[in-house]
Amino acid sequence: MQIAVDGLLLTGNFTGVAKVILGQMAALLNHKFSFDIDFIFIVPQDTDIYSLLGRRDFKVIYAPFNGCKKFKRVVWQQFKMGKLLNEMGVEILYSPGYISSYTFKSIKVTYIHDTIALSHPNLCTAHNAFSYQILLRMTALISDFIAVPSESSKKDVRRYLHARQDKIGVVPLAPTTPDLKYRPRSESRYIIAVSAIEPKKNFANLIRWYNYWREEGGIDHKLYIVGNLAWKYDSVIYQYNNSKYKNDIMMLGYQPSLEVAKLISGADLLVMPSIYEGFGLPVLEAMKSETPVVSSDQGSLPELVEGAGIALPLKDSIWQVAIPVLLSDKRRLKQMSRDGLKKVQNYTWERIADDLYDIFAYAYKKKHVKKDKNHL
C-alpha cells in the first residue's frame, strides 16, 4: 500500500505544526505495521527531508516551489498534487497540516489541529481567516476521517465544520523537544513562556502581570519569552519597552529545539496564558522537563493540564495573585513536577503512530466495504 503524507508546511524555522508534522513522519516510519506500506512524503523543493529524518527508506515528491510561497502551495496542493498522486495509484493521502487535496480521489485522512479561523477569526491574520474558513470547510466535507489533538478540538470540529461524530478521532500529540541527559542549572530564577508572538498567546497581558508580580508580588524571577515575532505583536513590544523591569524580561526570539528544552528545564515555572489553543505543546514539553505549568482555562488547555498543572481564568486579579503565591509554595511546585512527569508518559510518538495506523486501517476498510456494497 502507498500512503502519501503532505509535508508542504515543512519550511523555514519549524514551530508548532511543522514540528508535529515532522514528528509524525518519523513516528510512522518507525512503526511496525502489520502490512507493507510505502510512504511518500511531499515537501517543498527547498526542504531536505532526508537530512531532517536522518534516513532514506521512503520516497519523496518535491513540490516545484519554495516553502515560503503560500499561494503557490495552496494552488499546487489543491489542483496538481492530487492528480499526481492519483496517477501514481496512491491509496491514502494523509494531510497532517489542516488541509487536504480536493483533486485526490482515494482515501483522505486529515489532521485538523484547531478551528481558530472559524471560532476566533480575530486571532488570525485576515488572509488566514479568509482562506482557512473556505479550505477547512472543504476539507471536512471531503475527508474520510479527521484526526484532532484534543476533545476540545473535536467539539470545535463538530460545531464549526459540522463533521460527523463517527469520522472524528482524538490523537493527542507528544513533546517535540529532544531528551536531555541532565536538567540544566540556571544562575538566575525565571518564569518561561514559549510560543510564537501573536495575539492568541496573550503575551502583552503576561508582561503586565509580570510587572505586578515584581512590584506587588515580591518575586525576583526574570521572565523569558521564547518565540519569533509572528504578527500583530506591537502591543507586546509596547508593554516590553515600557516595563519598569525591562532588563529582566528576556525576549529570546526563535530558538532551536535543543535550546528550548534546556530553557524550559531550567525554569521554575512555565506559563501559557493563551486565549485559545487546539492543544498546547509547550505544556507537555514542560511536564517532560519536570517544570511546573500554569495555563489559561481556554480551549484544550484545561484537559491537558488536568491532574498535573493549574488552569486559571483569564482575569487580571487571578493571574496577579496566583503566580507569586504558587512560587512561594515549594511543596506544591514539587508535586506539580512529579504529577506532570507522570502524566506526560501517556503522550508518546509510538502512541500517535498506533492511533494513526488504526485510523488508516479503519478508513481503508470502510471505503472498500462501501465500494463492495455498491458493486452488489
Structural overview:
With 376 residues, the protein is α/β, with parallel strands linked by helices. It is 45% helix and 16% strand. The chain folds into two domains: 2-174 and 348-375, Rossmann fold (3-Layer(aba) Sandwich); 190-344, Rossmann fold. It contains 14 helices and 13 strands. The strands form two sheets. A seven-stranded parallel sheet has the order 3-2-1-4-5-6-7, with helices on both faces. The two termini are 25 Å apart. 42% of the residues are buried. The mean pLDDT is 94.
CATH structural architecture of the largest domain:
3-Layer(aba) Sandwich
Low-confidence stretches: none
- Please describe the biggest sheet, giving its number of strands, its sense, and whether it closes into a barrel: 7 strands, parallel
List the total number of helices.
14
Could you estimate the helical fraction of the residues in percent? 40-55%
Mean pLDDT: 94
Which CATH class of the largest domain is shown? Answer: Alpha Beta
Major beta sheet, strand line-up: 3-2-1-4-5-6-7
Question: What descriptors fit this protein?
Answer:
seven-stranded parallel sheet; 2 domains; single chain; Rossmann fold; six-stranded parallel sheet; 45% helix
Task: Briefly characterize the structure.
This protein is of the alpha/beta class and 376 residues long. It has two domains: 2-174 and 348-375, Rossmann fold, CATH 3.40.50; 190-344, Glycogen Phosphorylase B (Rossmann fold, 3-Layer(aba) Sandwich). The protein has helices at 16-30, 49-53, 70-88, 116-119, 126-142, 151-161, 203-215, 234-241, 257-265, 281-288, 301-305, 316-327, 330-344, 349-375, and strands at 2-6, 38-44, 59-63, 92-95, 107-111, 145-148, 168-170, 190-194, 222-226, 249-253, 269-272, 293-296, 310-312.
